C-alpha cells in the first residue's frame, strides 16, 4: 500500500489536483497599505516602509509594475458551477504628484494581463504595456483602466486629464474627463488627477450584463451612485483563462510620482471598502535646493531671453517704420492737406497688389485702391522721381493742379513722397481709358452720341485749363489713352504728369519736349516750345481718332498710314464721311460727323496761328459759330512718316486706365520736322 502511495503516478495526480487551488487562492483580498503584501514588483516600483506603493519617481522614461503574485482563473469554457466567472470587483486609492505643477507623465493603469512580463513594452504614451508594433493587436488579451495625465493627439486623447478603458491598446474604447457626481449634490464636479491629492477608483464588471463600470471620487467623498464610465463589453473575447492583475505606470519627458495607497479585490463578489484612515500617508513635498550656480544660470538665461526679445521687437519696429517710411521736407508743410500718408495708401491698395493693377507706362504703374477711412475709391500712380532737381517746383505744380475743379477733368487729390518715388492720387474712373473702347474688341462699341459727348467734354476741360482757371495750364499730352470714362461714360481728361502752369498774360510755353508721337505739333519738334496751340493740335488728332476709330499713326497696315493725311485725302475727294469709323455702321448725325472731321483737320493745321483756340472749338461744337473753309494745300497739314523721326528720347506718361502704353521704339522719339 505504501508503495502505491509513493508511486510517480500518484504524485502526478496529486500535483494536478492542487493546480486549481493555486488559481483559486487569494481571489478576495484587501490591502490598507502594502507593508505585508506579497506583490510582484518590477521596473522602478518599490514599497516604502510605511506601506506606500510607489510605481514611478521623477526619473525620465521609466516604468514601474506591481502585480498580484498568482494568476486568477478567468474561465468561461467550463459549465461547472465551481468554475469562476468573468465578473470581478476592485477598488484602490491612488495619488499622482507631478515634478512640475500641471505637467506630469504619462499616467497609471489597473491592468488585467495574461503575463507580468512586459520586456517588450516601452514607456511614455504606451504606459509600459505595449509598443508601436503590437499596440492594438487582439492577441494582446489585455484590459486596462488608464488614468492619463498627458494629451497625446495621435492616441485620440480627449484631454490631458481623463479616465479611459483600454482594450489591447492605448487608444481608449471609452473615456471621460476626470470628474464625479456626488450623491447629494447631483452635479458633475471636475477632478485634477495631477493635484497630488489621493483619489478613489472603483472598477466593477458584471458578466451577466456584460457591463464594465468605472467610478472616480476624492477620498473625502463616499462612492457615487453614478459611474464615470459605463461600457458594454464582452470580456470573454478579451481575457484568457489565466490572468494576472496589477498596476503599471510610466514617465516620459515629463515625470510624476505615481502612488497606490490601498487596494481591494474580489473575484466572486463586491470588493471590500478601504479604510481611508488606515492608508499610508504620502511623502511631504520637499523643496528642491537650488544651487547658487543654478540661480546665476537661470538669471543669465532670463536676461538673454529679454535681450533677444527686445532685439526682435526693435527689428520688427524698424522694419515696419521702413516699410511705411516717407520723405518729408520742411517746404512740404504748406502742402499738408494735399499730402497722403504712405501707410494709408499702402493699405488702400492692399500693398500695391498686382490684382489691383490698372495700367502701366513710361512713368510707372497705377493701382486701384479704397481709402480705409472714407471708403472712397482712388487710383494711385507710382512715379519714379530720383532727381531732386526741380522737385519742389514739380510738387508745387502738382498741388496747384490739385485745385483744378471741372466736371471733365480727372480730379488730382494729392500726392505722397517715399524714397525715390512719388505717388499721385486721383479719383477712380470705373470705365478706364477711352482707347480701350476704340480699339479693344472686348469692350462695347461707343455710339456716336457717346463719342460726340466725350469730344465736347474734353474740349470743355481744355478750355478751362487754357482760359478759365486762375493760371494757364498746358496739358501737353492730350490723347485717347489719357481720356478716362466715369460711370456714365463721360469723358474726363486725366494724367497731368506732364502739365505745366503759367500766369495769364505771360508767354505760356516750355522748351522741354515731351508728348506722344502722332499728337505732337510740327513746330514743337522744330523749336521744342509747347504752347496752347500744341495742345489744340493734339486735340485735333484726338478728334480724328474718335471719329475714325484709328490711331494718328497706324503701323499695323502694310504701309504706314498718317490719319491726318488720310482724312484730308477723303475731304479733297469730296467723300470726307468715308473716313468715319466703320464700327458706327453709318449710325451718326452726318452734320456732326462732318463738323468733327473738318474741325480735326483745322486743329491739325501746320501753322499754329491758323488753328482755332479751344474757345472757338467749343463754339464750333456747340453750333454757335460757322466753321471756316479748309485750305486745299497739302502743305497746310502735318504729313509725317517714320523715316523723318529723330532719336530724341521722350518721357511717355500713361493714364491709369491705359495699361498699353506705346513701346519705347515707337514713342520715345519725336518728329524732328513737320510740314
Automatic annotation (TrEMBL):
Annotated InterPro entries: ConA-like_dom_sf, Kinase-like_dom_sf, L-type_Lectin-RKs, Legume_lectin_dom, Prot_kinase_dom, Protein_kinase_ATP_BS, Ser-Thr/Tyr_kinase_cat_dom, Ser/Thr_kinase_AS
Reaction equations catalysed: L-seryl-[protein] + ATP = O-phospho-L-seryl-[protein] + ADP + H(+); L-threonyl-[protein] + ATP = O-phospho-L-threonyl-[protein] + ADP + H(+)
Compartment(s) where it occurs, according to its Swiss-Prot or TrEMBL record: Cell membrane
A single GO molecular function term of this UniProt record: protein serine/threonine kinase activity
Binding locations of ATP: 381
Compositionally skewed regions (Polar residues) per UniProt: 666-675
Region ranges (Disordered): 656-675
Domain Protein kinase: 352-621
GO biological-process terms attached to the record: defense response; response to other organism
Signal peptide interval: 1-24
Transmembrane feature ranges: 295-318
Family: In the C-terminal section; belongs to the protein kinase superfamily. Ser/Thr protein kinase family.
Protein name per Swiss-Prot or TrEMBL: non-specific serine/threonine protein kinase
Organism: Quercus lobata
